[in-house]
Amino acid sequence: METKPTIDLSALLERQRKAWSANPPDRAQRMADMAALREAVVRRMPALVAAMQADFGHRSRHESLISDGVIVLQEIDHVRKHLRRWMRPKRRFADWLFWPARTELQYRAVGVVGIISPWNYPVNLGLVPLVTAIAAGNHVMLKPSEYTPHTSRALTELFAEVFPPERVSVVEGGAELAARFAALPFDHLFFTGSTAVGRKVMAAAAPNLTPLTLELGGKSPAIIAADYPIETAAARIAAGKFFNAGQTCIAPDYVLVPRAKRDALVDALRQCVERSYPDFSQNQDFTSIINEGHFNRLRGLVDEARAAGARIISLPNDAAHDPARRRFAPTLVLDAPLDSRLMQEEIFGPVLPLVPYDTLDQALQLIAALPRPLALYHFDHDRKRTRRVIAAQLAGGVNVNDCLLQFGQTHLPFGGIGPSGMGQYHGHAGFLAMSKQLPIMYQSRWPSWALMRPPYGKLAERLIGWLVR
Questions:
Q1: Is 249 a catalytic residue?
Q2: Of the residues 63, 146, 215, 346, which is catalytic?
Q3: How far is CA 358 from the centre of its chain?
Q4: DSSP 8-state class, residue 324
Q5: How far is CA 230 from the centre of its chain?
């Protein structure tokens, strides 16, 4: 439901900015806020899971608890454990020319952070950036997706319990409100979503020179080495691809498989689906597509590929699709033309093209022909070959011999590059992204640099000449 056009976003931003300027949160306040938020998330988790279930039509309860529960709580705990050390000023050595001056870095909050969160993980991708912003000492305005109104309402109620509105506010609404939100002069703007919308957000922020973190997506490839166990690769790729019905920005988007092993991979993926989702039509572990529009988009991608000569394999069978409940069955696509939309656009659903290759060079050339992805997956026990793949490709992140799990590493930064995003967050990387690293130089009482001021005498002449020798 669209927010009433009378909402004054500028006034809300000004209210938050004044409150922050009058009383920037110190470490004690930040720690208390995160502790209260954690307690509220745990207590309200059943309601949050129910809200996501209502928004998706059906969403695996266990997947909601893992992705939007465990990961969020893990991030809060990690930040609270390390915040004191992150906030501590860091001494830096002054260059010898300026001795005995001394230098340091201080970490200052920037002010008010705007967050535009998506629908696919509506709790995780709203709360993790919010926790990061709070840890850095900022106030927050959050705009959740209009595609998940039940979850947005649940988050609004949760935040109202924990934070005063001048510290954290939620604004609910559709595309028109999101456009106005992105155009506000925030001190930092954090957006998670598609590359296409990311371009619009960046354009809206440009007049204000608002610093941005863009977490986008793209076509994340998986490469299976010729001697890697195909059953192991299939199990891990299936787990990553079909989690949340493929509605994940870092889901493997297509698989590069040795030509001689393609059919074996098809059989192994079929067995994975039958084992993971028995009695598929009634299975509670497979999530529905978020809305009819996205369901029809997936169907259109598959139909276009079929019309272009691709072979379509629905798992466990062709009758598994259920448009009424928006259950799009796991679907393998063989021989999809490389210029088809399926191979050019991010799929964002449980559709997996299998692309055969003859040499590793051929596989790497295909990846290089597409925009830089958010994730790269390589299945191989040969370390030398793995190093070659990593050196040849630049992606937002790499996972060797598994899928998705790099997102949950609190000690690693998460973020894309180019079309898959800019900026990083999670843990310390997020704290730095939403802080100003303030460099400070303390001049000594008797500075050596005084010798380099006019009038320039013989000593300065000799010293300068020596320095530029």
A1: yes
A2: 215
A3: 33
A4: G
A5: 29
